[in-house]
Amino acid sequence: MPKFNKILVGAAFSPNLKVNIIQACRFATYFNAKLYVVHIGASSNLKLEQLNEIVKNFEYKGQIEFIFKEGKPIEVLSDICEENKIDLLILGAQQRENIFKHYIGTVAKKLTRKVKCSVLLLRNQSKVEFVKKHIVINGLESESSENTIVTAFYTAKGLSSKKITIVEEIANEGLKVDDDRSLRKATINHERKTHQEDLRIKKIIANIPEKYQTGIEIKLQSIFGRSGYAIGHYARVVRADLLVMDIPKKSGIFKRFMMDDLDFILSELPTDVLIAK
Q: What protein family does this chain belong to (predicted)?
């Protein structure tokens, strides 16, 4: 079972500094983790005092370490994550700002691919505690889908979530429906795929310790549509509090020019997103 024993949050001295630190303190408290607060830039007594004041006002009781280091954000953060064996990297941005999409599309996207730890992208930022009652998981079959689902259950337990929906994205095979016969054929095909996916997901859940399932409503949901877009749209429609997914692997000569699940999700951020690794 994966665990978030060490959590890192980037501390940029912007209007979002306080809320980002507060959110990170909450998560560190939920998972009884050591918190690393990293500022990309030179150290100063004034900066350290500001950070300490935010943590003190939150009444954070856990272990905490402040790190100041100059350099390029992606390289510095990835190096610190590696050196300290960080389990969860927290990144936040303000959606109303024009720089939001640029930030998410560059720094966050590159970091999620470069670091070895899980990454939490915060969209719903608030100084007031926001309970994540409903977690949606991308259960699309892949090499890391089992780890994604297990990580989601561990996260749900730590956040005291009440509901988990595991979404099985099933690709349409382009069956043309133009009469009753073709409609029946398409329906049977969809039902067969849904049944196969349900069995696969249930097998994974059966291996998750009971204590991580107790008190949580578990639902399996099959959806058809374009990968990435479909799961993001579903999370938005059901008003999920957190979307958990992995990073799809690109392959082929055109991989640098093709959008994948992560590109679609980051282009809109339907809710807070946890990239499980």
A: Belongs to the universal stress protein A family.
| Predicted confidence (pLDDT) per residue in 108-137, tens digit | 778 888 899 999 988 766 666 667 899 999
Q: Are strands 272-275 and 242-245 parallel, antiparallel or unpaired?
A: parallel
Q: Which residues of 7-19 are buried (b: 16+ CB within 10 A; e: fewer)?
A: bbbbbbeeebbbb
Phi-psi region of 239 (alpha: psi -120 to 50; beta: other; left: phi over 0): left
Domain-ending residue, one of 122, 142, 165: 122
Q: Report which of 93, 109, 110, 103 is spatially closest to residue 20, judged by C-alpha positions.
A: 93
Q: In what order do the strands lie in the sheet with 118-122?
A: 64-69, 34-40, 6-10, 88-92, 118-122, 272-275, 242-245, 134-138, 163-170, 217-224
Tokens at 148, concatenated:
């994604």
- Candidates 237, 230, 238; CA nearest to 134 is 238
Residue 18: CB partners within 8 Å, gap ≥ 6? Answer: 54, 127
In a domain, 11, yes or no: yes
Cα-Cα-Cα-Cα dihedral sign, residues 95, 96, 101, 102: negative
pTM for the whole thing? 0.85
- Looking at the structure, do residues 151 and 265 belong to the same domain, yes or no? yes
Residues of the chain with pLDDT > 90, as a percent, come to 53
Radius of gyration in angstroms for the set of CA atoms belonging to the chain, rounded to a whole number: 20
